[in-house]
Write a structure and sequence with these properties.
Elements lengths: L5 E3 L2 E3 L34 H40 L4 H24 L6 H29 L4 H24 L2
Antiparallel strand pairs: 1-2
Length: about 180
């Protein structure tokens, strides 16, 4: 009975601490571990500096993985754009939409598997991810219109130059919305 807790006057207490059951053990989704699992008071998961370091490490790992996945999408996007625009002769805007859509789909699959590890509600997550991807299409559309059509800069250079800006913007949106 001591291991399970002690019942005193109709209330359950934790045998180790004498506190009401669960008082030192956050168990909800808002607990410091975010898992809903009980954590003993004073555990590394609850301490400020250790928790912050763990969070920073996780965030950095996600950013690096996202960048690697993004790199594969960039290569696929740019390669498809070059083929569709230069070889197939499609209009630059149509080539951009098709190549970006291919890159978005590639990135969604890889990010769901490796970066964020989320495999639930895939259709909803894909639709959100694609909406975020549409922001990249829109941003690149504007940049192509201004720099290529307006200033006469080669569309291949404009497309390549737009990719880092789009990547950073989309990471923030995908992390907070698509894979939240």
């Amino acid at each position: 009975m001591a291991a399970e807790g002690v019942v005193r006057a109709g209330s359950r207490t934790d045998a180790a601490s004498g506190l009401p059951a669960g008082a030192g053990h956050p168990t909800g989704p808002d607990s410091p571990t975010g898992t809903g699992s009980p954590q003993p008071t004073g555990s590394p998961a609850q301490s400020g500096p250790a928790r912050s370091a763990g969070t920073r490490t996780r965030d950095l790992r996600q950013l690096v993985t996202y960048a690697l996945v993004g790199g594969s999408g960039v290569l696929l996007d740019l390669g498809a754009f070059l083929l569709l625009y230069n070889v197939a002769g499609l209009h630059e805007q149509l080539a951009n939409v098709l190549s970006t859509s291919l890159g978005i789909t590639n990135n969604f699959v890889l990010n769901a598997l490796f970066t964020f590890g989320r495999r639930d509600r895939l259709l909803l997550r894909y639709l959100r991810f694609y909406c975020v991807g549409l922001t990249g299409i829109a941003l690149t559309f504007v940049l192509l219109a201004v720099f290529s059509r307006g200033l006469g800069i080669d569309p291949n250079l404009v497309k390549a130059g737009s990719l880092p800006l789009v990547l950073v913007f989309q990471f923030a949106l995908n992390r907070k919305w698509s894979f939240a």
